[in-house]
Amino acid sequence: MSTHTYGTVDVPVDGGTLRAGVWEPVDPAPGAPTVLAVHGITATHLAWTYLVDALPGVRVVAPDLRGRGRSNALPGPFGMARHADDLAAVLRHLGTGPVVVVGHSMGAFASAVLAHRHGGLVESLVLVDGGLPLEVPAGADPDELMRAVLGPAAARLAMTFRDHEAYRDFWRRHPAFAGQVSERLGEYFDYDLEPADGAWRPSSRLEAVTGDQRELVTGESLLPALEALQTPTLFLRAPRGLLDGEPLYTAEHVARWAARLPVATAEVPDVNHYTIVMGPAGAAAVADRVRAARAEVSPS
């Protein structure tokens, strides 16, 4: 039996409307808490369905960020401040807040900036393998670094697929999901596609990705947000990375930032950068931390 009912809402934002998924609990918990879930750089709101299942009684709101999913017609400029303002518009439109905000990958960067720009809407932050500055080797060019990190994801956005099954096959071969593409994930992959001249292509716009990626290294909006951070914050690290190999964040890099900031840290074992949210075990671990975050700031 499903724990939630699902629907979508289109929220007025600068330049048009932003699509958001809303999962209402069938059996609401006392106080009907809301969690705002913010996806990564080439994802959509359906990346969060495993987390929704792990949070019975909790309302979950998750947008398609500007330039992605059914929000991909929204114009630039992009960047974390722009996403943060869109997220604030979603919460105000739904009349909810302050809430626990869970951000994955780039969504964690946008979530931290949301807490800085619209602090009254954010109760606490759970940053999932994102939201701390990436490690930049001395003398490295930020654009070259991001091309190295996000190159495979950006290359996918330029591809077309004959049908939805071909796109699912692409992900079945992906190192992060080898042997793990369930029907649930298949629905996420299906949603990610849009028609393209008799074929199908991923819905994230390359313009949006390239407009956002540099800020993941330079921290243009992130660093001021972290320097002023007052919101209770937890960073969750995936020990494996985007291709199920080297992690996006080393434990040592996270420890260095944790020593500088009021941020607690933890590792979710045996997950990669994707499966920390798009897999049942990873999502359950994240959900445990979400419940703990809410309990710490809203004891009942």
TrEMBL record:
In terms of superkingdom, the source organism counts as: Bacteria
Q: Which Gene3D superfamilies match?
A: alpha/beta hydrolase
State the UniProt keywords alphabetically: Hydrolase
Is Chaperone given among the entry's keywords? Answer: no
Entry keyword annotation includes Hydrolase: yes
AB hydrolase-1 domain sequence ranges:
33-274
Q: What is this protein called?
A: AB hydrolase-1 domain-containing protein
Q: Which organism is it from?
A: Georgenia daeguensis
Taxonomic lineage of this organism? Bacteria, Bacillati, Actinomycetota, Actinomycetes, Micrococcales
